[in-house]
Amino acid sequence: MLFLETGPAHLRGHTVGKVYTSVVKRTARRLLQMYPDLFTTDFEHNKKVVSQLVEVESKKLRNQIAGYLTRLVRLKQRSETS
């Protein structure tokens, strides 16, 4: 299980600028690299998988990671078909 540390304890759960952008992208890419067959183009499915694999601090962060994973999977499928 991955544990996310997004910054100092007093900032966790609060978005300050675009702090989460790099955390979301880095975590999503790492998950896709480690478990490429677990993720699909279905956001709801990816949301459940992220909940099982990562201890996420908030629903919002979990959803951002799942959404970015969904986008990455779709982009990968498009590049394979063209």
From TrEMBL:
Protein origin, superkingdom: Archaea
Entry similarity comment: Belongs to the eukaryotic ribosomal protein eS17 family.
UniProt-recorded name of the protein: Small ribosomal subunit protein eS17
Any Pfam family the entry gives: Ribosomal_S17e
UniProt cross-references to SUPFAM superfamilies, sorted A to Z: Rps17e-like (SSF116820)
Keyword presence, GTP-binding: no
Molecular function, one GO term: structural constituent of ribosome
Keywords assigned: Ribonucleoprotein, Ribosomal protein
Gene Ontology BP term (one): translation
